[in-house]
Design goal:
The chain contains 10 helices and 8 strands.
């Protein structure tokens, strides 16, 4: 169990991050499917993220979506990353049923229909695993006075973990929502969540969707009481 006690998420201080819930990772014929990953496991968080989106939008909380992908000319994709994807059997930029794999503006690159962003919700395109890497995410958060992050999406052990660690290094209070994150590998999912709790919660806190919804509701009620 986590021993760290983070303050409840406050709509004016917190942001919900929905990381890489794209067709390339969560739909047949995308990058993950081509690489032989279990997309059924990657789709497991969808219903939980829908609940969190509904609650966050009701509180006018900042919601930010991310998409991993590259320029069509691949100039922002390092040779090492291209080699890794080729070794996995899903070379970035090769043709697939939904367009070129992990290439911006292709159909597969976009977010799945179940989690379509609402008008006004920013979508960050990132060439790396962390949502902070070569993006304007931190500028967005700082300009809005955000210091709490609620992390969801895929994959738990790669892009979610990379974003979490970068956020902690930047001083953000973070909660990773366990059942609103997904991985093709359940053992890596569990291990990634377990690592967050070491040393008294070195990377923040882990909560279930139901616990997070309860915390959001309690925070909203407390804020309404204080404002009245």
């Amino acid at each position: 169990m986590n021993r760290i006690d983070l303050p409840p998420p406050h709509a004016n201080r917190a942001a919900l991050l929905v990381i890489d819930m794209q067709r390339d990772f969560c739909a047949p014929g995308g990058y993950a499917d081509t690489a032989g990953l279990d997309i059924a496991n990657l789709r497991k968080p969808i219903a939980q993220i829908q609940k969190l989106l509904k609650a966050a939008r009701a509180q006018a909380m900042l919601v930010i979506h991310t998409r991993e992908g590259h320029r069509s000319d691949l100039l922002d994709c390092t040779p090492a990353k291209r080699k890794r994807s080729a070794d996995a059997g899903a070379a970035i930029g090769t043709a697939g049923p939904m367009g070129r794999l992990l290439i911006r503006d292709e159909y597969g690159h976009d977010i799945i229909d179940e989690l379509t962003p609402c008008p006004g919700e920013p979508v960050i395109d990132k060439p790396g695993y962390s949502a902070f890497h070569q993006t304007d995410l931190e500028i967005m958060l700082r300009s809005q006075g955000i210091d709490q992050l609620i992390l969801t999406g895929v994959t738990t052990e790669v892009c979610v973990q990379s974003t979490l660690r970068a956020a902690v290094d930047r001083g953000y209070e973070c909660v990773t929502v366990s059942d609103a994150c997904g991985s093709a590998y359940p053992d890596l999912h569990d291990a990634s969540l377990a690592m967050i709790a070491v040393e008294g919660g070195i990377f923040g806190k882990v909560m279930t969707t139901d616990a997070m919804l309860h915390a959001m509701q309690a925070s909203s009620a407390e804020y309404s009481h204080d404002a009245s």
